[in-house]
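Justification of resources, computational component.

The compute hours requested in this renewal are based largely on the per-chain cost of generating structure records like the one below. Each record pairs the submitted sequence with a full C-alpha cell output. That output is archived, and it is also reused by downstream analysis tasks.
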Amino acid sequence: MQAFLRAACAAIALASLGGAPVLAWQPAPSPLMTPWGEKLTPQDAWTHYPRPQLVRERWQNLNGLWQYAITPDSATAAGPWAGEILVPFAIEAPLSGVGRDLKPNEALWYRRTFDLKAPPQDRLLLHFEAVDYRTQVWVNGKEAGDHTGGTLAFSFDISSLVKTGSNEIVVKVIDRTNARYSYQLVGKQSLSPKGIFYHRCSGIWQTVWLEEVPENFIRALQISTSVDGTVRLRPDIVGAGTIHARLLLDGALVAEGSDTLTVANPRLWTPAEPTLYDLEVELRDAQGNTLDRVTSYTGIREVGRVKDADGQWRFTLNGQEVFHLGPLDQGWWPDGLLTPPSEEAMLFELNFLKQSGFNMVRKHIKVEPRRYYHLCDRLGMLVWQDQVSGGPNPKWHWLDPERNKEANRPAPDDPKDAEWPDEAHALWMDGLRGMIDQLGSHPCIVIWTPFNEAWGQHRTVEVGTWTTEYDPSRLVNIASGGNFFPVGHIADMHSYPHPVFPFHIPAYDAFVKVVGEFGGHGWKVSGHVMDENAQYFVYGGMPKDMEEFKARYGESIRLLGELRQKGVSAGVYTQTTDVESEINGLLTYDRKVLKIPAEALRKMHEDAGLVR
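The structure output for this chain reads:
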C-alpha cells in the first residue's frame, strides 16, 4: 500500500499535463484578489484532507493542474486540449488560470494521469467533493460513472479500471445554469450576474482525491449526541462487519462500545467552549479481526427550544436559552468564486466573526467544503444551513400582512407554492437529503433551511414534515423570509434595512420568531471593489460617510436588542463581505479591509444586550 502511495505521489508531481511546467501557471486577470489567492501556487491548492469526520491514512490528493478542453455539449470526446486548469477552481474563477465562462450548450472536459506500481490490493475509490453540474467520468477509457448535482460529494469504485503504470482520468461536465425548464439547483449563480446574483461557476470546484479502502469498509458514519452523554453511531457499511468504537478526550479513553457510547459527566459543546471528543471506529468481522479503521470526532450537545416566562419560544443549546446572532454568509470570493482560495482564508473570516461577538452564521444557499464545518466545530460557531435553491418560484409574500397589501402580495394566511413535476421534486429532495447526510454529524449545524424567500418553494408542508422527521436532532426553518406555512419550528421575517417583526400575528406564536435577514448597510471602499464606476447594490441608500455607515449598523443592532426583549430569538445581518455588485459587507470582497473593527462590533452587540 505504501508503494502505491509513493508511486501515486511521484506520478502526480511529474505527470505531463499539456507540456507546460507548473511554474507557467498564473491566475486569470481579475480586478480583485485576496491575500491568499495572491500567494497560491498549484502545489498548495487545497492540500488538506477533505473529509475530516471520516479519516483514513491511505489517500492521495489529485488537485493541481489538469488539462482542459471545451466542446459542444453533444461531443463524445474532448478533442484537442486547450491548456491547463487548476483544480479545484471553477473554470470561470481567476484562480483556475482560465477565467472563461462556460455556456449552457458547451461541455467542459478534464484530463490527468496518475501512476500505479501495482494494482490496489483492495478497493480504490475516486472521490469528487463537488462538481457543478452533470458529470461523467472515464478511467482508462472505460466509464466509471456519472453524477447529477452541483454541491455534494460523490465517488466511484475504480478498482477494476486501473492498471499497473500510467492511468488516465477524463471528466466531462455540463452546466445549464439558468436554462429554462432545467430545475437545476444554482443558488446565487447567474448567467447575467447583477445585484444579489453572482457569477456562475462550472465544473470541478472542490477537491478530487483517491482513497484505498478494504473490501468491507465504513462508507459513512452518522453521529448524534444527547446532553446525558449518549453518543450514537449509525454506520453505512459496504460488505459485512460490526463496528467497535472508542471515544477519547485529550487523548484519554472516556467510553468504549459499539453503536452507542455513554460518557459520564460529559463536557458539552458550546460556542464559548467548543469541546470535541475524538472517535476511533473499527469495522470487525465475527472473529474480532479489524477489517477497516477510521477516525472521527464529535461534540456532545443538544439543540432545542423552550417557552420563556412570557410564553415566547426561544432557542436552546444544551437546555439553556441562547440568542443566535450572526451574518448572512454567501461564501463567494473574487479569485475563487464558489471555492475559497484556501482553508486559511475561511479561518480568517470565522475568527473575525467570533471576535466580533457573533455566535452563528447563516450559510446562504451554498454548501461549503466539509472543512468549513470542521472549522466551525472547532471554533464554536453555530450554523444555519440553507438548501441550495433553483427552479420556478411562487409569488412571494412577507410575514407582515400590511406590507403585503401595500405591495399587492398574498396574505400570510394564504401561502403559495410553485408547481413542480415529480421528477424535478425528487431531484431536489435528493439534494436536501444528501446535504443532511453529508453534514449532519457536524455539531455546529443547528438549523436546516429548505427554502429562502420563496425561491423554488414548492410542496412546503411535505418538505417541512419530512425534514423534521428525518433529522429530529435539529430545528427546521422551513422558509427563511419566504411564504409561511405552519410547519417546522421557526417563523422568519426578512426586513431591510432595520429589523422588525409582526408580533401581532397570532399564527406565529407557535414558532420561534427570528429576523432571518436585516441590515444590508453599504459602504464603498475605493480600490477594493470590482469596478469603481459600477452601480452598486445597498439597502437604504448610500451613507454620506463612514460614520453614518457605522451609525446605521449600530441603530439596526439597537433595534434588534429591543426585538429580543419582545420575543425575537435570532438576528441575521446582511452580510459578512461585499460580493461583486453588493457592497453591504462588514469586510470588503477581497477581505483586505475591515469596515468596522471586530472590537467595535462586539461593543455594539454587547451594548444592545445581544452578547453576554
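Residues 1-22 have pLDDT under 50 and may be disordered. The first helix runs from residue 2 to 14.
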